Amino acid sequence: MNDQPLAEIGPDRSLLLVDDDEAFVKRLAKAMEKRGFLPETAESVAAGKEIARIRPPAYAVVDLRLEDGSGLDVVEALRESRPDCRVVVLTGYGAIATAVAAVKIGAIDYLSKPADANDVTNALLARGETLPPPPENPMSADRVRWEHIQRVYEQCDRNVSETARRLNMHRRTLQRILAKRSPK
């Protein structure tokens, strides 16, 4: 999909990205800047709420689970500071209950991680009752599963036994999965 033209973004191109995954938020910021946004990043609930209070953006992308709390707190702070802010919630842990909670407090869309910059841009710029178009090249279910396992593995400091316990999986099964290449 092509980059979105500036005319669709509007005169205020400010964008707040809140995610505790430093590498992800830097990549997303760079990609969103190429699409015409003016991104500012935060890696915690506290930093996100502070930016929302001082410099409320026109757009925001907020991770649901952050090290110091819930991204929903940032969404609420954004709604208080700037009711017209278009907020998209990202999460690696998709669940209907959290999607409903995010939309109830003012998010315009809810995307599962890892979402690419085109998906995020489409969600931020979608207007009215129409849904953004589905991703052109969505990940396979196997790839989503593999990404989730890798994320939990990294969060457990690459401890196979702890990762297997948290995923409710046999340690040997997890070792076999980790030894394979990522699915397409």
UniProtKB/TrEMBL annotation:
The keyword Transmembrane does not apply. Keywords: DNA-binding, Phosphoprotein, Transcription, Transcription regulation, Two-component regulatory system. Residues 14-128 form the Response regulatory domain. It comes from the Bacteria. InterPro entries: ActR_PrrA_rreg, Bact_response_regulator, CheY-like_superfamily, Sig_transdc_resp-reg_receiver. The modification 4-aspartylphosphate is found at residue 63. Pfam families: Response_reg (PF00072). PROSITE patterns: RESPONSE_REGULATORY. SUPFAM superfamilies: CheY-like. NCBIfam families: ActR_PrrA_rreg. This is ActR/PrrA/RegA family redox response regulator transcription factor. It comes from Ruixingdingia sedimenti.
